[in-house]
Design brief:
Length: 265
């Protein structure tokens, strides 16, 4: 009788243990962007049942330098970077890339109260290239913008579009995006002199709108990020009855001024 009970218990435990091993293996995934390994402090990337790697959408903002907007009513994620834009609806296989509808073989999901998106479809939609190293289980992302093309001589320089200003050209400001009153994205630069001039210009822009005192407080924290690997942890600041949030990771850094009445969890 004891042998029968033991056999039943073992039969019940084995599938559970096997499931745990499968989940653990599926979550053992690394991601690199331009050769730099991405650190996921809490929510981790994982491979879903369709064999696709899903990552927390916050990664898109911080490491790919994109802007992410969430439409809670329609359960949609809208991602923009420069002139590229991607729209994904939770639970659907359709994805809208620069206005063109495409079909994925997986879906964006909400897992543990975090929004996860298929990294290959999103990164490629934003103009990056994506590879997979099966040996190390690593997603390899290369951003096109970080690759400097060989200049081509031209006989008509007057028709050549002007290059971005190295300081102000990499500061993006948006206003009135759902619950956000004012959003500023600052692109990290390997040249520390240019980077700090960029911070100075961004602080001046912020101070002109919200005042020097709060601008100094915000940018004293922003200036801690001097290298790409340095993670500027998500931090809240209070300005009268409004919240200001700051976070920076990889090549992206975002400052958001939330509208009055918005309560952050």
């Amino acid at each position: 009788m004891k042998k029968i009970i033991t056999a039943i218990i073992v039969a019940m435990i084995l599938p559970v243990m096997a499931g745990m091993l499968i989940v653990s293996a599926n979550e053992n995934v690394s991601v690199t962007v331009d050769g730099e390994k991405v650190v996921f402090p809490d929510a981790k990337p994982f491979i879903d049942e369709n064999g696709r790697t899903l990552i927390p959408v916050r990664f898109v903002t911080e490491d790919l330098g994109a802007t992410v907007e969430w439409n809670a009513e329609d359960r949609e994620v809208y991602i923009t970077k420069d002139k590229a834009n991607v729209l994904i609806r939770i639970g659907q296989e359709r994805i809208l890339v620069n206005g063109i509808t495409k079909t994925m073989d997986t879906k964006a999901i909400i897992r543990y109260d975090r929004t996860y998106v298929p990294i290959r479809y999103v990164a490629e939609g934003l103009g990056a290239t994506v590879g997979w190293d099966a040996g190390t289980r690593t997603v390899i992302i290369t951003t096109i913008k970080d690759v400097d093309p060989t200049p081509i001589p031209t006989q008509t320089p007057s028709n050549t579009p002007p290059e971005k200003d190295p300081v102000t050209g990499w500061i993006t400001v948006k206003e009135n995006i759902q619950d956000v009153e004012y959003s500023m994205s600052i692109r990290w630069d390997p040249d520390n002199e240019i980077l700090n001039k960029r911070y100075d210009a961004a602080e001046k822009m912020f101070a002109e709108r919200y005042g020097e005192d709060i601008a100094k407080e915000i940018f004293a924290y922003v200036r801690l990020k001097q290298t790409r690997p340095y993670v500027l942890e998500y931090k809240r600041f209070k300005m009268n009855s409004q919240f200001i949030t700051v976070a920076g990771k990889g090549a992206g850094l975002d400052i958001k001024v939330w509208k009055e009445g918005v309560i952050l969890k």
